[in-house]
Amino acid sequence: MGNIIPRWEWRTFGDNFNGADEKIMAMNPSEKKSGEKYILSRNSNENCKIRDDLMDIKSPVNVNEDKLEQWYPTMKLTFPLDKAAVTDLFKNYFKVDVPADLQDAYEYAAFVELCSAQKDLCVVDVKKVRHITNIDETIVEVAETEFNGVPNRTVCVEHIDPALVMSVVRKLGLEGLPNINYIHAMKQAVGL
Questions:
Q1: What pTM was estimated for this model as a whole?
Q2: 40: which of 62, 105, 122, 140 fits an S-S bond (Cβ 3.0–4.6 Å)?
């Protein structure tokens, strides 16, 4: 995947962002809509999503003193997934038992069905409308989300420099709000 420098992320979910969402929206951010499926595991906090026929996995690698989280892209797979890739996903990312009698390969729909049948996994249909801009070199977004139809809102600040992330978090008046990542918010929304 080339030379990747993982970004530090501060994100929160809720209804009240102390006016930060209005400040961000006043900057005329670009809008991006997407739909994806996340595979949540009761035994893991890996960020495993499928978008545009691509399985994209990010792993949490660090949490600093400000509770910023650093995520690293660890795998990108295209469908069909072969038996070895499915085995690796179940063992090392989902951290659940590998299903018996795996097929030799799984197209997208069959893989989602396989995951949906596992008691410790949950497939979450996610819709996002993201409003993205830059503040002091950081990527900043306000997004409306749905997790299996449950609406939510989020604000996020990302950059490779954690001090810069916290500077923008403070500038937007977000510092007192909890840092909540997508996986945690989705698990709460779907009761996992």
A1: 0.90
A2: 122
